[in-house]
Amino acid sequence: MALTDHNSYHPAKGLTTSEAEFIDLARSNGELYIAQPYELYSVENHDSWRKLFSRMQGRWGEYANEHFLHGIESLCLDPERVPRLDEVNRFLEPLTRFKAKPVSGYVPAFKFFDCLRNREFPTTITIRRSDRLDYLPEPDIFHDIAGHVPMHTDPAFADALVRFGDCAHTAAEIVLDIADENEKLRRLTSIIRAMARFFWFTIEFGLMNSQHGLKVYGSGLLSSFGEIRHCIESREVQRYPIQLEWVINQSFEIDHYQPLLFYVDSFAHLFDLVDELESWMRSGRLDNVAPGEPGVNEEDLRSFLVAS
Q1: How far, in Å, are 138, 178, 179, 192 from residue 298 at the CA level?
Q2: Which of 46, 168, 201, 228 sits in a 20 to 30 Å window from 239, CA-based?
Q3: Quick check: 137 pLDDT over 80?
Q4: Taking a C-beta distance cutoff of 8 angstroms, is the pair 224, 204 a contact?
Q5: Whole-angstrom Cα distance, residue 181 to residue 141?
Q6: Please, what CATH class does the domain formed by 6-307 belong to?
Q7: What is the pLDDT of residue 1?
Q8: In angstroms, what is the C-alpha Rg of the chain?
Q9: How much is the pLDDT for 6?
């Protein structure tokens, strides 16, 4: 339960990414799961949402997959104002039982995947500044609600996310039986890295085959005005049918447009890939993936060890 008293803040201070006092206090209090103090959004915050939403609408129509387009319509998002998460959930939950769950910031890996398993999506409540719309190194509410959540309205996609959450529990069970602490940490680090890479190249930056060619379903692309076009049209981007052995061994960097992307044939295909990922995990095929990005921090490791 959130303890932070949002009545002590003046709305003019806003909920701007990296500048929100409400978030700073929640973190200092150790509050991860919080309420959305809607009255704290400033005029500039709503203006940021309006600008982001307005300029993406044409790009979505041209490059987004049909499931996303149905989803964005189903959520009835107000293009003029930052959404209230309880209103988003009112439209979302009847479709797939998923709901957006507000958080104060970074969610350790196991907790994040466990939320997915419980049909909850950890959702950032801050929004980027209106003069810095194009790049943000961390998620904001536009990325989460306009990028991720419309996909959660699709039952097949939602089931794949839940299945991915199951994999985190499998990982925690596997390392529980490893007696040597150094070996436990080594193998767990490799497994978490493999899972993070899979999530990156599918849920965040995935493409999908369609009768009209490749379309976007990854949230990182769906929330980026520049990259959603670049990923489909640029000759600089390599696009391949997804191969699990390639994805889990492929490093990535977050601070530029992605030069390598993978596509699936359907969300049933994606679900089968998650099944395969878990099977490889159980057989030890994720124990020695290639080194490199992303890094695995102590908090992520600890989240799995505590769960096990």
Answers
A1: 19, 18, 19, 12
A2: 168
A3: no
A4: no
A5: 38
A6: mainly alpha
A7: 42
A8: 19
A9: 53
